[in-house]
Amino acid sequence: MSGFNKVVGSYEEAMAGLEDGMTVIAGGFGLCGIPEGCIAQIKKMGTKELTIVSNNCGVDGFGLGILLEDKQIKKMVSSYVGENKLFEDQLLAGELEVELTPQGTLAEKMRAGGAGIPAFYTATGYGTPVGDGKEVREFDGRKYIMEEAITGDFAIVKGWKADTYGNVIYRHTAQNFNPMAATAGKITIVEVEEIVEPGELDPTQIHTPGIYVDRLIQGTFEKRIEQRTVRA
Amino acid sequence: MSGFNKVVGSYEEAMAGLEDGMTVIAGGFGLCGIPEGCIAQIKKMGTKELTIVSNNCGVDGFGLGILLEDKQIKKMVSSYVGENKLFEDQLLAGELEVELTPQGTLAEKMRAGGAGIPAFYTATGYGTPVGDGKEVREFDGRKYIMEEAITGDFAIVKGWKADTYGNVIYRHTAQNFNPMAATAGKITIVEVEEIVEPGELDPTQIHTPGIYVDRLIQGTFEKRIEQRTVRA
Amino acid sequence: MALSREQLAMRVAQELQDGFYVNLGIGIPTLVANYVPEGMEVMLQSENGLLGMGPFPTEEEVDADMINAGKQTVTTITGASIFSSAESFAMIRGGHVDLTVLGAFEVDVQGNIASWMIPGKLIKGMGGAMDLVAGADNIIVTMTHADKHGNSKLLNECTLPLTGAGCIKKVVTDLAYLEIEDGQFILKERAPGVSVEEIVSKTGGKLVVPDNVPEMNV
Amino acid sequence: MALSREQLAMRVAQELQDGFYVNLGIGIPTLVANYVPEGMEVMLQSENGLLGMGPFPTEEEVDADMINAGKQTVTTITGASIFSSAESFAMIRGGHVDLTVLGAFEVDVQGNIASWMIPGKLIKGMGGAMDLVAGADNIIVTMTHADKHGNSKLLNECTLPLTGAGCIKKVVTDLAYLEIEDGQFILKERAPGVSVEEIVSKTGGKLVVPDNVPEMNV
User: Which chain B positions have a beta carbon within 8 Å of A119's beta carbon?
Assistant: First the structure.
């Protein structure tokens, strides 16, 4: 019996079961803290008609952007897109659907999906195109719109360190959307820079408890920088 | 200018502004991780007609239970009460109102209050007395009830360590309701066992960022144990 | 013979699977932890905010800051994680706990459960029970088949205020293991030495008795 | 003379207070960080999940895992905290940020703001802007008073799709500082050397001009 050991030996195994038409929730913000290996594996598998829920869609040739090359993405749910020419082309050609969602609402929709909250109210987007067609409700004299949770068939997540039980910690701002993504997948895959033994991480300092993690893999990461800004 | 230094020198200063009829959200679970000093100060101040939002109401002579002695509490919002005789007496005498709220819903109501989410849906309590009078709504074929957020005039919180900026970490399961309580007070007071300098806590390991904290005080804690269970 | 508390826990423990995250309620459910099959690993969730609960501490290990949902002092196992109650109930409500075991006053053929409130008696509150029954797909209720007055606790319709509606599918009593399906109890196993007739006579709700009702293995 | 970008930032910086947690948008708002008054401490929130943003890193300090909401490499100041985007927007949505500064295409007398979408142009998305305007009590919009064609950006009703409804109370443009109250702009200050007449002629929305409109101090 393997108990709580979530470690798998290959990305093939990590992404096994992904099928055409599925929804994949991806952690990451811009190119920071993105599950590079899982994305590469999806490209390799050639899975099509995917709905991808991620704050951004990478850039040309890196991150989720590589899934555009073979038109694997049917729909993106994001707060900010279009850092890549290919995205723009496919969008304008009607080959790609985009559901723009405010960043905080997107984060909360993922959290809600993982937390058994089917819907919540937020003032964000009220009176804007985002609120069109959504229920409006007043609380304490202010108007809010109802937003529904998001869950995915798969969630792909980039951590820093994890123990073999799938307890994960994130590094710096590479945390971003990853903890919520991890909770919202029917199958959650976490790739990390280092796998350690249970007991090596402080129990009170774990960002994602192993209960959310189905498969864990150690990867190597390019960590491309989108906007390298330095001071003298 | 004092910048982000949240440290106050006395519990008088910490609880300044608390008035009769206010709502106080208190962290803690049972007697674990309770803001002992703030509670003692409320007793000392003699503030009346308080609504207290806390998972439990302490025991006779300790924790929130001491606020019953002078009938300072008008209403408790809790998931489990009655570990104290005085509570029972006042409840049966109609001197105390209780709003029983499922534990997870209570935690989520506090979080929502701090996070600008006025209401959310949960399956918890549907079809039970908790759902009476609440809106029922179906999502994906399942029924949920709408629950509204809770905020307080004050939140009183027990941390382990904090830096002077009010960045807090909790110890073991003394975390419990404290992080959510900290977000949901108009004025949030945190008492801790140790105050350290900014920079001494790892930025990625802070449970409650200082933005939620208005006043910080170092206390001493009895930490009474409710159920001492040991093995040979 | 009716099962003892320990035997009830043993029978429930047979529903465990390797790698399960499990929440055990107070009372008999807690005893289940003592009967995890050899070589199998399960991790206990405590709803105050702990995944990976260990045994009670030794005198030296007792720590007021380390308690379980029953407010008892506990320890953690290697690989545990500790978090806020909001995170804990996100786990529970979100259906991430593999198995929840809890007691009840009554269960009915619709899968309703009543476990927290007896009108006329002082109400202490539901604690996390409503979240647990609403959140879990896989719940086992363990209780005596009848109350001390001999009244069945397995009914066509709960008489007490509910803890959750339509969420119970499995019940282990001191007399039988039953499943709930299509508005009826299905008798799956008898306690050793307990007759089908006795179970039938003590079951208030609609009961289906298959041709063959094996004895439990406890 | 119309204010320069730097002067706009300087004027906005006068709204800072000691101990403020501040979220600065991309562009001119970012420059505000350069004009924090001597001896005053403010802490910058970056909505991807950072409170206590520091300056850009040195070449040696550059770290791909440490970026701001503009995806630029940054550093942290002493006493910073780093958290998830859900926590970050809980802060923002919950009204815990003391001041938010952002740019806009248009603002109107109802406090509506349009800043993210121009129909006919490719839409990139709102990012965190809708959350920021909905969450903050205290928002300053900073922008040019008119667009490059000379059309006023201060209107009776925004023509572009909104970012937020009824949430803006303060606007700093290159010509003036205005407040929004009861469905009208109130001219509070003029840029040095800019006449009230010029401001009136370039303001599309209903404008109240008090008897005395002092010059800004920049």
Answer: 120-121, 137, 139, 144
